[in-house]
Amino acid sequence: MGDRSDRSWPGPHLVTAAQQGDQGAIADLVSCSHPHVRRFAFSLCASSQDAEDAAQEALIILFRKIGTLRAAGALSSWMFQIVRHECLRRARTMVRRPELEPAETAASAEDDVLFRWEVERVAAAVAALPLDQRRVLIMRDIQGLPGGVVARSLGLSTAAMKSRLHRARAAVRAELTIPDEGAPE
Protein backbone atom coordinates (compact mmCIF):
# COMPACT_ATOMS: atom_id res chain seq x y z
CA MET A 1 0.00 0.00 0.00
CA GLY A 2 2.87 2.40 0.81
CA ASP A 3 4.44 1.75 -2.59
CA ARG A 4 1.19 2.51 -4.37
CA SER A 5 0.83 5.95 -2.74
CA ASP A 6 4.52 6.72 -3.27
CA ARG A 7 4.20 6.00 -7.01
CA SER A 8 1.15 8.21 -7.35
CA TRP A 9 3.01 11.27 -6.08
CA PRO A 10 4.60 13.40 -8.80
CA GLY A 11 7.95 12.02 -9.92
CA PRO A 12 11.32 13.54 -9.01
CA HIS A 13 11.80 14.90 -12.55
CA LEU A 14 8.66 17.05 -12.20
CA VAL A 15 9.69 18.19 -8.72
CA THR A 16 13.18 19.10 -9.95
CA ALA A 17 11.78 21.08 -12.89
CA ALA A 18 9.43 22.92 -10.51
CA GLN A 19 12.31 23.65 -8.12
CA GLN A 20 14.18 25.22 -11.02
CA GLY A 21 11.30 27.60 -11.69
CA ASP A 22 9.54 25.91 -14.64
CA GLN A 23 6.05 27.45 -14.31
CA GLY A 24 4.34 24.60 -16.18
CA ALA A 25 6.01 22.06 -13.92
CA ILE A 26 4.95 24.03 -10.83
CA ALA A 27 1.33 24.07 -12.03
CA ASP A 28 1.45 20.33 -12.79
CA LEU A 29 3.08 19.63 -9.42
CA VAL A 30 0.37 21.51 -7.52
CA SER A 31 -2.35 19.80 -9.55
CA CYS A 32 -0.89 16.31 -9.08
CA SER A 33 -0.27 16.86 -5.36
CA HIS A 34 -3.76 18.16 -4.62
CA PRO A 35 -5.50 14.78 -3.99
CA HIS A 36 -2.72 13.64 -1.65
CA VAL A 37 -2.67 16.91 0.25
CA ARG A 38 -6.47 16.76 0.66
CA ARG A 39 -6.22 13.18 1.95
CA PHE A 40 -3.61 14.28 4.52
CA ALA A 41 -5.77 17.21 5.58
CA PHE A 42 -8.94 15.15 5.95
CA SER A 43 -7.11 12.60 8.09
CA LEU A 44 -5.58 15.25 10.37
CA CYS A 45 -7.99 18.17 10.68
CA ALA A 46 -10.95 18.34 13.03
CA SER A 47 -13.52 19.43 10.46
CA SER A 48 -13.99 19.16 6.72
CA GLN A 49 -13.85 22.96 6.40
CA ASP A 50 -10.53 23.06 8.27
CA ALA A 51 -9.27 20.24 6.05
CA GLU A 52 -10.20 22.13 2.87
CA ASP A 53 -8.60 25.32 4.19
CA ALA A 54 -5.45 23.51 5.34
CA ALA A 55 -5.13 21.75 1.97
CA GLN A 56 -5.46 25.05 0.11
CA GLU A 57 -2.89 26.72 2.37
CA ALA A 58 -0.48 23.81 1.85
CA LEU A 59 -0.85 24.03 -1.93
CA ILE A 60 -0.21 27.78 -1.80
CA ILE A 61 2.95 27.13 0.20
CA LEU A 62 3.96 24.45 -2.31
CA PHE A 63 3.44 26.91 -5.17
CA ARG A 64 5.38 29.70 -3.48
CA LYS A 65 8.19 27.75 -1.84
CA ILE A 66 8.91 24.72 -4.01
CA GLY A 67 12.40 26.11 -4.56
CA THR A 68 13.19 25.64 -0.85
CA LEU A 69 12.55 21.88 -0.94
CA ARG A 70 15.98 20.30 -0.58
CA ALA A 71 15.36 16.82 -1.97
CA ALA A 72 12.97 16.04 -4.82
CA GLY A 73 12.07 12.72 -3.18
CA ALA A 74 10.95 14.42 0.04
CA LEU A 75 7.86 16.09 -1.43
CA SER A 76 5.31 13.90 0.37
CA SER A 77 7.05 14.29 3.75
CA TRP A 78 7.34 18.05 3.28
CA MET A 79 3.67 18.39 2.33
CA PHE A 80 2.57 16.19 5.24
CA GLN A 81 4.45 18.45 7.66
CA ILE A 82 2.87 21.58 6.15
CA VAL A 83 -0.63 20.08 6.38
CA ARG A 84 0.00 18.84 9.93
CA HIS A 85 1.15 22.31 10.98
CA GLU A 86 -1.93 23.93 9.40
CA CYS A 87 -4.32 21.46 11.05
CA LEU A 88 -2.70 21.98 14.46
CA ARG A 89 -2.84 25.74 14.00
CA ARG A 90 -6.53 25.53 13.17
CA ALA A 91 -7.21 23.20 16.12
CA ARG A 92 -5.61 25.72 18.47
CA THR A 93 -7.88 28.49 17.24
CA MET A 94 -10.94 26.21 17.32
CA VAL A 95 -10.89 26.00 21.11
CA ARG A 96 -11.91 29.46 22.22
CA ARG A 97 -12.28 30.78 25.71
CA PRO A 98 -15.27 32.85 26.74
CA GLU A 99 -14.65 36.55 26.38
CA LEU A 100 -13.15 38.04 29.52
CA GLU A 101 -14.38 41.18 31.17
CA PRO A 102 -11.90 44.08 30.82
CA ALA A 103 -11.14 43.98 34.56
CA GLU A 104 -10.19 40.30 34.32
CA THR A 105 -7.87 40.73 31.36
CA ALA A 106 -4.85 42.12 33.20
CA ALA A 107 -5.12 39.59 36.02
CA SER A 108 -5.31 36.62 33.66
CA ALA A 109 -2.24 36.97 31.41
CA GLU A 110 -0.71 33.93 33.10
CA ASP A 111 -4.00 32.03 32.68
CA ASP A 112 -4.02 32.88 28.96
CA VAL A 113 -0.50 31.51 28.52
CA LEU A 114 -1.39 28.36 30.44
CA PHE A 115 -4.58 27.94 28.41
CA ARG A 116 -2.73 28.26 25.09
CA TRP A 117 -0.13 25.76 26.31
CA GLU A 118 -2.89 23.31 27.26
CA VAL A 119 -4.62 23.69 23.87
CA GLU A 120 -1.32 22.94 22.12
CA ARG A 121 -0.82 19.86 24.30
CA VAL A 122 -4.33 18.57 23.49
CA ALA A 123 -3.91 19.23 19.76
CA ALA A 124 -0.53 17.47 19.74
CA ALA A 125 -1.93 14.50 21.71
CA VAL A 126 -4.81 14.11 19.24
CA ALA A 127 -2.47 14.46 16.25
CA ALA A 128 -0.20 11.74 17.68
CA LEU A 129 -3.01 9.16 17.76
CA PRO A 130 -3.07 6.38 15.17
CA LEU A 131 -5.23 7.42 12.21
CA ASP A 132 -8.13 5.05 13.00
CA GLN A 133 -8.39 6.32 16.59
CA ARG A 134 -7.87 9.97 15.60
CA ARG A 135 -10.71 9.86 13.07
CA VAL A 136 -13.16 8.37 15.58
CA LEU A 137 -12.16 10.84 18.32
CA ILE A 138 -12.41 13.87 16.04
CA MET A 139 -15.75 12.85 14.57
CA ARG A 140 -17.31 11.89 17.91
CA ASP A 141 -15.80 14.32 20.43
CA ILE A 142 -14.83 17.36 18.37
CA GLN A 143 -17.42 17.36 15.61
CA GLY A 144 -20.05 15.94 17.98
CA LEU A 145 -21.43 13.40 15.53
CA PRO A 146 -23.62 10.58 16.92
CA GLY A 147 -21.89 7.24 17.44
CA GLY A 148 -23.98 5.47 14.81
CA VAL A 149 -23.10 8.08 12.18
CA VAL A 150 -19.40 7.81 13.02
CA ALA A 151 -19.50 4.01 12.84
CA ARG A 152 -21.34 3.98 9.49
CA SER A 153 -19.16 6.63 7.88
CA LEU A 154 -16.00 4.73 8.85
CA GLY A 155 -17.43 1.33 7.93
CA LEU A 156 -17.26 0.03 11.50
CA SER A 157 -19.63 -1.76 13.81
CA THR A 158 -20.84 0.35 16.73
CA ALA A 159 -18.82 -1.84 19.10
CA ALA A 160 -15.61 -1.34 17.06
CA MET A 161 -16.21 2.41 16.94
CA LYS A 162 -16.73 2.53 20.72
CA SER A 163 -13.59 0.48 21.28
CA ARG A 164 -11.48 2.80 19.13
CA LEU A 165 -12.99 5.84 20.80
CA HIS A 166 -12.22 4.42 24.25
CA ARG A 167 -8.59 3.69 23.26
CA ALA A 168 -8.22 7.18 21.74
CA ARG A 169 -9.62 8.91 24.82
CA ALA A 170 -7.41 6.82 27.10
CA ALA A 171 -4.31 7.63 25.03
CA VAL A 172 -5.06 11.36 25.04
CA ARG A 173 -5.79 11.27 28.78
CA ALA A 174 -2.53 9.41 29.45
CA GLU A 175 -0.58 11.90 27.32
CA LEU A 176 -2.10 14.85 29.17
CA THR A 177 -1.75 13.46 32.68
CA ILE A 178 1.05 15.13 34.58
CA PRO A 179 2.29 12.78 37.30
CA ASP A 180 2.30 14.27 40.79
CA GLU A 181 5.83 13.56 42.00
CA GLY A 182 4.94 14.05 45.65
CA ALA A 183 1.83 11.87 45.66
CA PRO A 184 2.05 8.28 46.91
CA GLU A 185 1.20 5.62 44.32
Q: What attributes characterize this protein structure?
A:
185 residues; mainly alpha; Rna Polymerase Sigma Factor, Chain: A; Arc Repressor Mutant, subunit A; 10 helices; globular; disordered N terminus
Blueprint (SSEs and pairs):
Blueprint: H1 2-8, H2 12-19, H3 23-44, H4 48-65, H5 75-94, H6 102-107, H7 109-127, H8 131-142, H9 147-154, H10 158-176
Helix pairs in contact: 2-3, 3-4, 3-5, 4-5, 5-7, 7-10, 8-9, 8-10, 9-10
Could you describe the 3D structure shown?
With 185 residues, the protein is mostly helical. It folds into two domains: 2-94, Orthogonal Bundle (Rna Polymerase Sigma Factor, Chain: A), CATH 1.10.1740.10; 113-176, Winged helix-like DNA-binding domain superfamily/Winged helix DNA-binding domain (Arc Repressor Mutant, subunit A, Orthogonal Bundle), CATH 1.10.10.10. Helices cover 75% and strands 0% of the residues. It is built from ten helices and no strands. Helix 5 (75-94) packs across helix 7. The chain is globular. The protein starts with a helix and ends in a 9-residue tail after the last helix. The relative contact order is 0.09. Mean pLDDT is 78; it is low at 1-6 and 96-106.
